[in-house]
Design goal:
- It is a single chain.
- With 490 residues, the chain is mainly alpha-helical.
- The chain is 45% helix and 5% strand.
- The chain has three domains: 124 residues, 3-Layer(aba) Sandwich (Rossmann fold); 118 residues, Serine Threonine Protein Phosphatase 5, Tetratricopeptide repeat (Alpha Horseshoe); 178 residues, DNA Cyclobutane Dipyrimidine Photolyase, subunit A, domain 3, CATH 1.10.579.10.
- Helix 13 packs across helix 14 and helix 14 crosses helix 16.
Length: 490
Amino acid sequence: MAADPVLLWFRQDLRLQDNPALQAALAAGGAVIPVYILDDAGEGRWPMGGASRWWLHHSLAALDASLRALGSRLILARGPALPVLQELQRKTGARAICWNRRYEPAAISRDKEIKAWFTAAGVEAKSFNSALLFEPHTIANKQGGPFQVFTPYWRHCLTQPVSPPVKFTAKALPAPARWPASLELGELALLPGIPWTDGFPPTWTPGETGAQQRLRRFLSGPVDAYAGQRNLPDTDGTSMLSPWLHFGEIGPRQIWATLAARSKATGVFPDSNDARVFLSEVGWREFAHHLLFHFPHTPEKPLRADYEKFPWAGDPGGQLLRAWQRGRTGYPIVDAGMRQLWHTGWMHNRVRMIAASFLVKHLRLSWTHGAAWFWDTLVDADLANNTLGWQWSAGCGADAAPYFRIFAPVLQGEKFDAEGKYVRRWVPELAQLPARFIQRPWEAPAEILTRAGVTLGGNYPRPIVDHGAARTAALAAFRQLRGGKVAGRE
């Protein structure tokens, strides 16, 4: 007698390899019915942004193609997950449902409700870890609480065992006698309705195959200079794996295992300082999920409660925010980053820090504005990472940069983009400026501006704030919050 079907609920685990929920569904012995549900309401205050929806569209297409090669397919649905799964279970007669866990507050609440309902109904509901090396509830400090500083957190993590990736070797997936109804991918309406994402396809290949290609490319060279080149935005020096990691087209255990395999020749893991530094960035992602799990209020409120009273500046009409969003601040390194973000759905990490610091310190606009913009425009928008990054920049989160440490955008540009290659690419109206003026065009003599085709206040804006004045105002705001003197630092 054939075993009953199993529902395999895909979410942010859009891959076949190292997918424990898939392996559990296969082990049940019956037909496997893969399903993806677009449940915007179930994401609480953070339904997926526009750039992420573009990625999801193409990732679902790639996953469906992989499943069809195995004699299966992906069922697509839209709406609240529980009633959709209830209806699928009723129509298919499935006696089990498997999924991989998520760690955002709204997802945790939804998953608990779904597991409780199916368990009470006599349907086996199993969840697994595919997204993290170390699940948040398994890591604690000496007092039994959550870590709030990265270095001791990661040091502790490195003493813990890491499970090997789950290998998928099946040549086919058992299919049901009759497939349930499915939406067409286009009916999910994931692609943007404005001509925004033309720059995405040349940059990205969503899906499991694209993830493996990017990992191989990174490990074939850039990883060996990672510590020195990861801060240079004009260099292909970072892994750029973040969107594939967010959508689960590759998992951190796979990255860990690949780096461990490289270490066999030396017997040392990681096998170089560059690999160690890269692995610590994977650890930073783990830390972000650790914090979000233990402090679920942080996407909207600062971890450090005193910062709720921070005296943010006003922005009548939103003109300053719009200038920042559009890459029209008059500071070339900031503008280059914001335009790279709009064109590709991604921004180099060093420039993310510079652009974020500019928003919260030079413009003194709340980090929540930046978090919302990044959420909508990043293909790698991840609630845990986005929250940690913005609270770090604003000085109000765990292990955060002190608010008084204010990045000087000109000096940052000259340090990390000395020849202006990055700025020339993304701010082409400045491309003909000599390197000595590329990060500070307002200091160039009139004849040099004319020769370079630059009109300040015309085709390129003058700085919307003065660095010195903005820095002074930011430090005054911080003193107001603290009620005392604070030594400023660049």
